[in-house]
Amino acid sequence: MHRFFISPSHLVGETVLLIDENASHGNVLRLRVGEEIVTTISDGIDMICKVIVVDKQEIRAEVIHRTDNTAELPIKITLFQALPKGDKMTDIIESVVELGIHQIVPVETARCVARSQNKGLRWQKVAEGASKLSHRSYIPKISSICSLSDAIGQASKLDVTFACYEGEKDRHLSHFLQDKNPATMGFFIGPEGGFTDEEINLFSQNGIPTTTLGGRILRSQSAASAVMAGINFWKNLP
User: Can you say whether the dihedral through the CA atoms of 235, 181, 162, 118 is positive or negative?
Assistant: First the structure.
């Protein structure tokens, strides 16, 4: 079934209203009266609906029943991603959203080649598409690009934070996560050239430990997915 994210104001009683972009998308999909769709207002609940009116400007659907969405992780995770080269950020957003990320903060670091690209709206659309594809009930927020020091300030408000660093030899991610049960978590991924010594020192000064993902060097667009895959495995253990 096709999935739509709606605002609370577009749920009137037991009737869902698809307007603006949702109505346009519904018409592109050629929704028909009697067809079932899934809608959500990002509250963890999926509403199974039956289309009752189709118009170019508005599509109406009746809520048949509600069910808990099981696609969300029990922990809110923020990725602090150093800006990669080219259009790699799109690939990163798609993969980590599918793996359950809650928020993505693009960060400018010393070795970033890309600088202050104003792609926030485009990146947010990518996140929405990936959320629909993976049947999530929440669209992760893509924050504005910020400096590393600002990102560290945001990370300090989370329960657990760590930075992935190829120079770390002893603290493996799997060991670091043991015996932890945070409600919020954040992690830093560096650019293609990695973090500088000064940036690693900045993490240390702010109480952010570094972790290793193993003996292999991963591309910037692969590292975040590897972390999220590890967290998914960790949180799904009995």
Answer: positive
Strand stretches in 69-119, DSSP E: 76-82, 103-108
pTM: 0.90
Closest by CA position to 230, among listed 169, 180, 191, 192:
180
Q: Where are the beta strands (DSSP E) in 41-75?
A: 45-54, 58-68
- Can you say whether the dihedral through the CA atoms of 49, 22, 225, 108 is positive or negative? negative
Q: How far apart are CA 190 and CA 163, in angstroms?
A: 8
Please check the confidence at residue 98 and state whether its pLDDT lies above 90. Answer: yes
The one-letter amino acid code at 219 reads R
Burial 106-140 (b: 16+ CB within 10 A, else e): bbbbeebebeeeebeeebbbbbbebbbeeebbbbb
User: Distance between CA 190 and CA 83 in Å, rounded?
Assistant: 8
Predicted local distance difference test score (pLDDT) of residue 115:
62
pLDDT at 92 > cutoff 50 = yes
